[in-house]
Amino acid sequence: MRAATQTEYGTPDVLHVRSVERPTPGAREVLVEVHASAVTQGDRRLRAADFPGISAVFGRLLFGLFRPRHPVGGTMFSGRVVATGSEVTRFAVGDEVFGSVDRGAYAEYVAVAEDGPVARKPAGIDHAEAAAIPYGAGTALTFLRDLAEVRPGERVLIVGATGGVGRMAVQVAKHLGAHVTAVGSRDAELSRALGADEFIDHTAEDFTARDARWDVILDTTEGDHFRAFVGSLTDTGRYLSLYLTPRLLVQMAWSALRGGPRAMGGVALGSREGMEDLRALVEAGALRGVVAQRHPLSEVGAAHRALERGRLPGAVVVEMTRDRGVPRARPVPAGNTSFAVAGWF
Ligand SMILES: NC(=O)c1ccc[n+]([C@@H]2O[C@H](COP(=O)([O-])OP(=O)(O)OC[C@H]3O[C@@H](n4cnc5c(N)ncnc54)[C@H](OP(=O)(O)O)[C@@H]3O)[C@@H](O)[C@H]2O)c1
């Protein structure tokens, strides 16, 4: 099969589309023919070994000390099940699914644990839109619903509302019944269309200078800003940072003990339940993936460069089926986990 591989950490130039062995699903895995994979800041960090905050210490230990342990990148996918392991009960050949994996989604096929972060693709959206959902929306759900326990009527402010996580956080906060303030420097109309009640341009105004308080501030920007933002939180306010630093860890412990506004942080890990929730939200019309650019797999490097330039009004997605002259793979019978047909170039 064709896959975007990297044998070293570095710029988008380290990504090369090559022919590699197709994964064989284990007993409790399904083999997914990938139609689309979203390119995310998480993918960029893994490509460049740019592990943020305290994860700089163990990032390379986890993902490869000198070079990536798993050469095929890509973490988000939407596609179709083409084979199932012998013990799989949740999915069948032909099911359209979306979800996330640790590595391996920039490929024509990826093996996915049936109990991992995967669910049936929401009806009525294409694979690129579906692939654009799990990264930001999964993170937003974990932080806003599970960690901060946002309640209807609360005021939520999202710093970086125009980014990959922020666009989804606006929608999730709105769905939870919050009054949503989006902070960014562009795409104000898109933010409003996604559910923001107001938009603050951070290049023109510092929201902390306002005589206003928020119940929750979700900060998607680099660094920890609890001290800078705490004056804008209510007495029971929660500051949520996507960026874990040693100082934030101390602030999390101290604010939990002391009472008053809390500092909170963590890492959002995908789950089966979380993916089922995202599917339900999309099908209920509460959430949508926003796609700004679609690239063929052969242009995965260009897709990463576009992500790095930033300021895009939506996700960058790689579509495996867009490369001209590449025959589509044929489906494989259920239970057949060791086949050799399908996919060549
Ligand atoms: N902890 C976790 O589990 C987790 C999960 C997912 C992502 N992350 C991390 O979260 C971070 C954000 O990811 P992302 O995909 O959303 O990144 P992104 O798409 O690059 O978005 C970042 C946003 O930050 C905004 N921004 C930059 N400076 C700002 C400022 N001074 N004030 C307000 N907004 C500012 C930008 O908005 P404008 O362009 O409009 O200025 C941009 O849209 C990354 O570091 C990523 O690694 C962590």
Quaternary organisation of the protein chains? single chain
Q: What CATH architecture label of the largest domain applies?
A: Alpha-Beta Complex
Task: List the ions, cofactors and other small molecules found in this model.
Answer: NADP nicotinamide-adenine-dinucleotide phosphate
Q: What gyration radius follows from the Cα positions, in whole Å?
A: 20 Å
Encode the helix/strand succession as letters: EEEHHEEEEHHEHEHEEHEHEHEHE
Task: Return the structural class.
Answer: alpha/beta
Enumerate the spans where pLDDT stays under 50 for 5 or more consecutive residues.
Answer: 324-345
Helix share, percent: 25-40%
Query: How many structural domains?
Result: 2
Q: Specify the CATH class of the largest domain.
A: Alpha Beta
Query: Alpha-carbon distance between the termini?
Result: 8 Å
Q: What's the total helix number?
A: 10
Strand content: 15-25%
Q: How many strands in all?
A: 15
Overall mean pLDDT stands at 93
CATH topology of the largest domain: Quinone Oxidoreductase, Chain A, domain 1
Tell me, briefly, the overall form: globular
- Report the major sheet: 7 strands, mixed
| CATH superfamily caption of the largest domain | Medium-chain alcohol dehydrogenases, catalytic domain
